[in-house]
Write a structure and sequence with these properties.
By secondary structure, the chain is of the alpha/beta class. It has two domains: 2-77, Transcription Regulator spoIIAA; 102-219, Pectate Lyase C-like, CATH 2.160.20. 14% of the residues lie in helices and 34% in strands. The strands form three sheets. The chain has a seven-stranded mixed β-sheet with strand order 5-6-8-10-12-15-16, with no helix packed on it. It has a five-stranded mixed β-sheet with strand order 7-9-11-13-14, with no helix packed on it. Strand 3 (48-51), helix 3 (58-70) and strand 4 form a beta-alpha-beta unit. The longest helix is centred in the N-terminal third of the chain and has 14 residues, at 25-38. It is globular, with a radius of gyration of 17 Å.
Length: 221
Amino acid sequence: MSEEMVKIKGGRSGLSLTFAPEASFEDILHHLQGKLESGSGFFLRGTMVFLPRDVLTDAQREKLQKLFHEHGLICRVQPLEGENHPEKSQAASATAAESQPQAAPAASQNPDVQEMLVVNKTVRGGQEIRTKSSVLVCGNVNPGAQIIAGGSIDVRGICRGMVHAGAFGDTSAIVVADHLMPTQIRIASFIARSPDHMDMTEKAERASIKDGQIVIEPIER
């Protein structure tokens, strides 16, 4: 049941979580804690995470908010339908034509938390997104598209464009995608490119710098 215990859906300002009705809170807490501590890319630092309404007690909600905060994420309760979004902010600068991403604000009490630019659509060929923050794409990155981010990059889809994480020198930045098949991938000053022939993997993949080179490895979302 672990794969279905926590479901995520990308929105304009972050990720909304839903929990399996039959799952106990302790199982959900343990599942999320394992994902966060694994560094798998299940959530990137700076991500805005929304908890479901009316399914958690105050004490349970506080436990989850504390857990996410300890890992550099921002956690709120999902607003009611039609309610003005409490965390909505101006989008960070991006030059992707016809896209209007929203940036989730950093938590002021935690200076290590970066803003995250959320792009809730596919980035098409010829489009470029350039930002000092991390980037979450709820869609694909098509060939000919470019993403240049000061932080990490998370693609909830297939990444076939050019991606550059840690563009201002952050060697701890990572690139995560459901299917990582970029024409070129950069992290800080390191550069790699995909092989001419790549098979589609069943698992998500993460690119990071290890031993002075970019390493791509499968991960569990």
